[in-house]
Specification:
alpha/beta, Nucleotidyltransferase, domain 5, disordered N terminus, six-stranded mixed sheet
């Protein structure tokens, strides 16, 4: 199995260099995987896998955390208009509480790759290796800043989740989900203190559990299988 060295990955500033090297060795198509929402205490965990078209060069593509919201939206739309293979898996709060966010994250990565319309020859994940992938895989340090397919997966996951959180804000306007996207900001903590958690909070998380017990809130219904989508 080809394993590009970490020194090479850091030295080469081309976002598409790793995929190009793997493609030249007959290991394409290359898919990238990333998630959004792992560190949040409310809302879903969203995992995306993306395999970019050969020779793709998408304007503004980069680490989703460093892009403006408007830039992320533009890249998201360009990805969906391109011939990229895209698959998304999401886990709701009850499933995260029941199984743990780490278990859901790893399973989601494997399911997202398996859900791609075209089977990749190689997978790149952000930061750490993931066992049990259906094809050879490599964890890439700062993958969303180093590999285009991982950056693309990060954008898909982030925008998909942000849109879901904006929808949830309409159903639970007390918490400000549209602003903080379910992360533990001061405003979110203040809302939890005042209102207690709602069904979209991860009841097993310590900062939520404190307010859950204080307000006498029962844990939410246990969800079944994760939601999957592909395009």
């Amino acid at each position: 199995m080809l394993r590009p060295t970490a020194s090479r990955m850091r030295r080469d500033g081309d976002l598409y260099a790793i995929e190009a090297a793997l493609e030249r060795r007959g290991l394409g198509p290359v898919a990238g995987v990333d998630e959004a929402g792992r560190g949040a205490c409310a809302g879903p965990l969203v995992v995306a896998a993306v395999s970019l078209p050969p020779s793709a060069r998408l304007p503004e593509l980069g680490d989703s955390k460093l892009l403006t919201e408007a830039a992320r939206e533009r890249v998201f739309e360009r990805l969906h208009r391109s011939r990229a293979a895209i698959a998304v898996v999401s886990y709701g709060p009850a499933e995260i509480d029941r199984r743990g966010v780490g278990v859901c994250n790893l399973e989601g990565m494997r399911l997202a790759v398996a859900g791609l319309a075209s089977r990749p020859g190689y997978v790149l994940t952000d930061g750490f290796p993931v066992a049990g992938m259906p094809v050879p895989a490599l964890g890439v340090m700062k993958g969303d800043r180093t590999a285009a397919c991982v950056a693309a997966a990060g954008v898909i996951a982030k925008v998909t989740r942000d849109r879901l959180m904006e929808e949830l804000d309409g159903r639970h306007p007390r918490y400000g989900f549209a602003e903080h996207k379910g992360y533990g900001t001061a405003a979110h903590e203040a809302a939890l203190r005042e209102w207690g958690p709602c069904e979209q909070h991860r009841m097993s998380y310590a900062n939520v559990a404190v307010h859950r017990h204080a307000h006498g809130v029962e844990s939410g219904p246990q969800s079944g299988a994760p939601h999957r989508g592909a395009s």
